[in-house]
Structure to design on (274 residues):
């Protein structure tokens, strides 16, 4: 136990006690898990996790630090961080600071030292649910009550909190050792990406296969998208409930049959609704 006490309480009354790292405070969100063995910086900066407190199932987190190149967006998106064991002293030639320092800098609360296997199995069996993570209120009954009364993600529009404000072009390819992010010599195709919470590495992979990408806000109209006369339309990943963004499904319905369309995650769900 390295730091002050922290408590995670779920809406069904389940409580976990651990140690705080990162920022101090109290956050509310849907408690979910991710099974990746690496990529914690990318996970916590993925806009798909807006509104969620993310548990990582891999046991040692923070051992290779963080850097300024591996963000999937311009900020950390997860509401809170849950890990089994956090490493304060990273070892990696690309590391610029520790995960805990990044969380503190960006105001994200973390908890370590809990039985994440038990938590993940509980979520798997009981379903994802709202929770409260706190370093301030350490009364389990109080936290459970807060979790019970917290608004869920069903019907909420979280896309508006993560989408871009105005259109922009993306021409950066994926990262290569010794080169950094690449710049392809030519881009043969033009893709318009509707930003519901897009990850940067999706954009980079589109560039790698020869696509110039124009990213537009989630609120862009069908007319706005078609005005670019793209070769294809991409519907991005993003957070929350697809029924919370009915305007997106309405727009996509007007695009079907006009251009090739594909989606990932939330984008795929919106396409299905359309």
């Amino acid at each position: 136990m390295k730091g002050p006490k922290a408590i995670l309480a779920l809406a069904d009354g389940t409580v976990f006690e651990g140690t705080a790292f990162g920022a101090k405070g109290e956050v509310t969100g849907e408690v979910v898990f991710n099974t990746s063995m690496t990529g914690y910086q990318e996970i916590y900066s993925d806009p798909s996790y807006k509104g969620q407190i993310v548990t990582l199932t891999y046991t040692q987190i923070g051992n290779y630090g963080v850097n300024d190149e591996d963000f999937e967006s311009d900020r950390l998106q997860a509401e809170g961080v849950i890990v089994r064991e956090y490493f304060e002293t990273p070892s990696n030639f690309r590391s610029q600071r520790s995960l805990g320092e990044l969380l503190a800098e960006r105001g994200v609360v973390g908890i370590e030292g809990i039985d994440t296997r038990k938590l993940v199995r509980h979520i798997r069996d009981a379903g994802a649910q709202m929770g409260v993570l706190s370093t301030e209120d350490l009364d389990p009954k109080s936290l459970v009550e807060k979790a019970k009364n917290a608004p869920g993600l069903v019907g909420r529009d979280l896309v508006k909190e993560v989408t871009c404000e105005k259109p922009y072009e993306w021409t950066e390819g994926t990262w290569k050792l010794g080169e950094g992010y690449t710049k392809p010599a030519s881009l043969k195709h033009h893709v318009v990406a509707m930003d519901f919470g897009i990850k940067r590495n999706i954009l980079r992979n589109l560039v790698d296969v020869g696509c110039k990408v124009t990213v537009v806000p989630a609120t862009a109209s069908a007319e706005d998208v078609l005005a670019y006369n793209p070769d294809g339309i991409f519907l991005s990943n993003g957070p929350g409930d697809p029924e919370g963004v009915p305007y997106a499904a309405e727009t996509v319905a007007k695009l079907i049959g006009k251009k090739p369309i594909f989606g990932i995650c939330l984008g795929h769900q919106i396409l299905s609704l359309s």
Q: What stands out?
A: The CA atoms of residues 7 and 199 lie 30 Å apart. The chain has a mean pLDDT of 96.
